[in-house]
């Protein structure tokens, strides 16, 4: 059963995720990046549990290390030289710091998209974009659902192969490669057949026809208006603070964050509150349900 933020209108959810992602990627203030990463990690921990959080953490660590190394080797801007690389180019502190910032950015976006996948289900995506661009809506919906369904089907295929002694862990290295190719071939065949079945099913239902009517249970209620208004007002305030120079920063030629003032601190507080607002809504509603059940 959907609870908390998952019960909000799809448009409200879309406005929230667009707001958070755009503020994270476009402003790229170091404090904003840290706030966004912390809030996205908290969302992954809440929606996916500790095992999903650890798995995502491992992926983000690998991504972060790769980004930091690549940026340090490619970018040589900055005035603080740490050492010189074998090719004679300098390794600067500013390039390392910018690599860390880019790694935090990518990790935060990765975690936010996990929350998008959990909250923005396929029926919500089709509801939002189906009237304007049915093909695009179906493509986005299938893409978001494909990874989870692919993993489930892969586990089923591997379990079947394992019972026959033909898993990638059985036999000699050559045999394992052959088994892996067999599993990969089965997954490709399943993906193609599933795509064809989905296309035939949607075509038989008249999906995408101009005169086709749509029924939905989604209705905008006062809480959706309040949530959307709070998100948009926070965007306006953050944008105004950024335009006024309160969120200025620089990575090159030297890393520098000017002294914070009232507008800077308030912008950080507003952004952090908006990032955590869905989580606060979910935790509050869970607490209410637990309290009600305890009284039964």
Description of the structure:
It is a single chain. The protein is mostly helical. The chain has 2 domains: 4-131 and 223-295, no CATH class; 143-213. Helices cover 73% and strands 2% of the residues. It has 8 helices and 2 strands, in the order ααββαααααα. The protein has a two-stranded antiparallel ribbon. The longest helix is centred in the first third of the chain and has 45 residues, at 30-74. The two termini are 20 Å apart.
Question: Main attributes?
Answer:
single chain; 296 residues; mainly alpha; 2 domains; two-stranded antiparallel ribbon; 8 helices; 73% helix; 2% strand
Total count of helical runs of at least 4 residues: 8
Q: What is the count of β-strands?
A: 2
Evaluate the radius of gyration: 24 Å
Percent of residues in helical segments? over 70%
Overall SS class: mainly alpha
Q: What is the rounded distance between the termini?
A: 20 Å
Q: How much of the residues is beta strand, in percent?
A: under 5%
The average pLDDT score comes to 83
Query: Major β-sheet, in short?
Result: 2 strands, antiparallel
Tally of domains: 2
Sheet with most strands: strand arrangement: 1-2
Regions with pLDDT < 50 over 5+ consecutive residues?
A: none
Shape: globular
Summarize the structure.
The protein is mainly alpha-helical and 296 residues long. The protein is built from eight helices and two strands, in the order ααββαααααα.
Write the layout of secondary structure elements.
Blueprint: H1 10-27, H2 30-74, E1 81-84, E2 90-92, H3 93-119, H4 122-129, H5 134-163, H6 173-204, H7 222-243, H8 262-295
Antiparallel strand pairs: 1-2
